[in-house]
Amino acid sequence: MKHREGIEKERENLRTVFKKMFSITEDAASNEEIRDRILTGGKITGTNMVVMICAILIASVGLNTNSVAVIIGAMLISPLMGSILAISYGTVSNDAYLMKRHSVGFAVQILISVATATIYFLLSPIKEPTEQLLARTNPNFFDVMIALAGGIAGIVGQTRQDKANNIIPGVAIATALMPPLCTCGYAIANGNLRMLLGAFYLFIINAYFIYIASDLMLMLLRTPRVKAMSVSEWKRLRKKMYRNTLLVLLPIIAIAIGWNV
């Protein structure tokens, strides 16, 4: 009897240790701080816009000259991920105004990014596609996995008490939101529709699965809602997520089936 009780106690201790090891609420910042930090990172005025245009130009030069180091530098300073996290926060907090505002802002960022890259590549004397440009035109399931893991790591980094961590820069490099948009600019400047579709699809995969992963983590963190969500509203939201995820994955599934045939 005592032996059995000892085993149960050991198991309970192990469960407690593992629960503490993988707890995302253990060192989380306050809800107010999380909200302020995420929404500040999603702003599209002032500093963020200037930094974004600079990042686009740097990434375009790196892709055009096949320089990995320059491309990484551009991804480190890109503010695009901040907008995705802000949209995610609006979704989970059930704040339609926030979600709409940051979605419009994100669309503006995309348009300005592609326009800036297009102008650069129209003026650039180097017209041949480099290895780094071509690498952004063939998305696959590995990109989905990277975006999901990046989204989880990104939102965890943004919700910690300690703001001085290196998670966000690492996520920015891993998920590579900026280079696909620059590749879209190259494709438009050189009239390459196939490259445009491939690069933009890669961008959609990265952005969407970062968003989905952020949604899941913010739900686990019990992000406060501005208004209660009814059971029917929650079901509709869940159905939309399932449907949109399937739609985003369809081209990759079709490509994978084509490879196996």
TrEMBL record:
What are the UniProt keywords, alphabetically? Answer: Membrane, Transmembrane, Transmembrane helix
Q: Which domain of life is it from?
A: Bacteria
Membrane-spanning ranges: 44-63, 69-92, 104-126, 138-156, 168-189, 195-221, 241-259
Q: Which InterPro entries match?
A: DUF389
- Give one Pfam hit by family name: DUF389
Protein name listed in UniProt: Hydrophobic domain protein
Species in which this protein is naturally found: Ruminococcus callidus ATCC 27760
